[in-house]
Design a protein that fits this description.
The chain has eleven helices and three strands, in the order αβααβαααβααααα. The longest helix is centred in the middle third of the chain and has 34 residues. It comes from Papio anubis (Olive baboon).
Length: 315
């Protein structure tokens, strides 16, 4: 059948997203945690950005990087959750090829941006603990701006070629995508053409961005821990570790589900499709929802400002 279609020249320009395949009758119930997570992510990250930008006492490198992270979280969740909710509530799964490619471009580039921000935050903690006297001279407002631009250029630059790699393909297989959002290889597999270049380029992007970031974060924290355990004062040691605690939680929360999802896709062929899709959605739902909560609770300066904004009359 595929062989016959391969010569018809037919290429689908509209696709249908199924949502969570195999659990279509449960979509209304599944939509509840999706909706609550999204609202929490919107409110939490917007509040975090507002507080950091309006309070001059928080105009420090650590908080400015956190502001970037909150912005990336907003984009990542907004790229995926409204689309999923429209499928769950209105069965509105139809999506054009151009819109599908646009969605996956922003999903993948934002994911890489967030990975880059987490790396820079690890570098920030490394400078703060290992070179405290040079902290303000190394991380100036100018250098923070350049770092932000570099993160964006890297994420958009590495994902941009994927647009052309997907546009060149002929989609003559099924136009039903068993997912709640568009992803590079998921879409490419519905082509009748050779997609080896897509697979290899996707692998190159993963290795040169996310995997590299994970390795550099690991090296940063190895150096941080070595420096911390050389601090003679136990109080100073505890304070230094505490400043890294929230960042480590966010790192595990961001990379953990992503790595687990990739491993199940590569090696869990016997796992039901809906498990793969739910795991992929955890990457888009959980970090944006929990990141502002973790930083709000574990960072005293932010907690004080949040309580002041939300409860101004409470002293």
């Amino acid at each position: 059948m595929v062989h016959i279609l391969n010569h018809t020249g037919v290429s689908h320009t509209v696709f249908r997203l199924l949502g969570i395949p195999g659990l279509e009758d449960q979509h209304m119930w599944i939509s509840i945690p999706f909706f609550l997570s999204y609202v929490t992510a919107l409110l939490g990250n917007s509040l975090l950005i507002f507080i950091i930008l309006t309070k001059r006492s928080l105009h420090e490198p650590m908080y400015l990087f956190l502001c970037m992270l909150a912005g990336a979280d907003l984009v990542l969740s907004t790229c995926t959750v409204p689309q999923a909710l429209s499928i769950f509530w209105f069965c509105a799964g139809d999506i054009s090829l151009d819109r599908c490619i646009t969605q996956l471009f922003f999903i993948h580039s934002t994911f890489i941006s967030e990975s880059g921000i987490l790396l820079v935050m690890a570098f920030d903690r490394y400078i703060a603990i290992c070179y405290p006297l040079r902290y303000t001279t190394i991380l100036t407002n100018s250098s923070i701006g350049k770092i932000g631009v570099t993160i964006l250029l890297r994420s958009y630059g590495t994902i941009f070629p994927i647009i052309f790699l997907l546009k060149r393909l002929t989609y003559c297989r099924s136009n039903v995508l068993p997912h709640s959002s568009c992803e590079h290889i998921v879409l490419a597999k519905f082509s009748c053409d050779d997609i080896r270049i897509n697979i290899w380029y996707g692998f190159f992007v993963l290795m040169s961005t996310v995997i590299l970031d994970v390795m550099l974060i690991f090296i940063s924290y190895t150096l941080i821990l070595r420096a911390v355990f050389h601090i003679p004062s136990q109080d100073a040691r505890h304070k230094a570790l505490n400043t890294c605690g929230s960042h480590v939680c966010v790192i595990i929360l961001f990379y953990g589900p992503g790595i687990f999802s990739v491993l199940t896709q590569r090696f869990g062929r016997h796992i039901s499709p809906h498990i793969h899709v739910l795991l992929a959605n955890v990457c888009f739902l959980v970090p944006p929802m929990l990141n502002p909560i973790i930083y709000g609770i574990k960072t005293k300066h932010i907690w004080d400002q949040v309580t002041h904004v939300l409860f101004p009359k409470v002293k």
